[in-house]
Fold Probable endolytic peptidoglycan transglycosylase RlpA.
Amino acid sequence: MINNRKCYFLTFIIFLFIGISQPTFAQTQDVQTGQASWYGSKYHGRKTSSGERYNKNDMTAAHKTLPFGTKVKVTNLENEESVVLRINDRGPFVGDRIIDVSEVAAKKLAFHGQGIGNVKVEVLELPGDYDPKNAGFYTIQTGAYTSLKNAQALSQKLKAFDKTLDVELMEDNSRGKKVHRIRAGRFDNRKEAEAFNELLKEEGLSGLVKEA
């Protein structure tokens, strides 16, 4: 009986240690589900938004907002095949697709032939030097309201459009009146911000691209 208790106790300690030492995906970023596409030979060797050369045989991907260097697990919801990819580009800017994977990744996920697939994207690791409060970025000012309620409503619409989007609600005074401004996204350059602004425009949510 004593030996059985020792076994149960040791088993509990092992599971407790595993649970503590391995953070869940929810501790890093929300999970996204949606359509994935891939890009191959046509873009092979071209510069990505991060400055790297795209290699169709590398385990990389493009995402609209995740920081460059982020590692994500992408799972094909049709067959449960999964891969780990590193974000090094921006996109896809087509419809409601959430990620663009390399050609080799599409083959491993088994949707290469179809062109698109339904996937789940989970963040495994953010880059070590990532600081969301770093200055020197482009953002989109999507609205300015005297009504806090209206500003909050727009913020919710933006977050519903893209759960990974960094949405900021700021308050300042303009001509003696309190104004609530909404900023969406943190982009490395103006081109990325303007491309994302075009996506917002399709939803009636576009704004003004500004350097922060």
Q: What stands out?
A: Residues 28-125 form a domain with the Barwin-like endoglucanases fold (CATH 2.40.40.10). Helices lie at 2-21, 103-109, 148-161, 190-202.
